[in-house]
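Lab notes, practical 5.
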Amino acid sequence: MATMLLLPFRTLIPSSSSSSNFRPAPLRCSNDRQALFNRIAPVYDNLNDLLSLGQHRIWKRMTVTGLDFSKEQLLVASSKQHSKNCFSNIEWIEGDALDLPFSNGSFDAITMGYGLRNVVDRPKAMQEILRVLKAGSRVAILDFNKSEELLTSTIMEWMIDNVVVPVASAYGLSEDYKYLKTSIRGFLTGKELEKLALEVGFSSARHYELSGGLMGCLVAMR
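Output from the prediction step:
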């Protein structure tokens, strides 16, 4: 059976395990980011429905085991497990993307959604992904694209100010989502992401711009 590791900033991880319990583990991560995701946990799925047009639910059906550094996110996910058939095979694990609780070469594929931008040590996160991947396997990392085109970056910031933050404000979370512009400005460009992947040991890396350059996906092979 193929095993796939899915790492959103909150991290979902599929493996061959069929259990569905919540297992705490020691964490090493940014306290402010962890607090943010704990705080928005009750409405996070609703916001994702609106902002991803429901696509995040399709992505989650691909998992088997789920790992996240936010305890509140895990509690919300676990509470929905018995009412959602597509979640019945998931084990929820509290853990850290910088210290994945898996042995070397555990996964046939890894995906990370809107997570690498938020970790406090990107090279370390990439090294951990490389470590738990099987030889010849790939990782796909989806996130906002830090475009080098002025028009694209201007459109991105306009959308955050006029779409994302107003939607979040309906849930009383406008201040929590205003960090997006700063985090994207501090993120890596596509070329820089490719360079990082190669530097930590991936054999190949290519970054694809999506949705008119607003989003990007790094695909790298071990």
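Observations recorded by the TA: The first strand starts at residue 4 and ends at 6. The chain has two domains: 3-9+29-145+188-221, 147-186.
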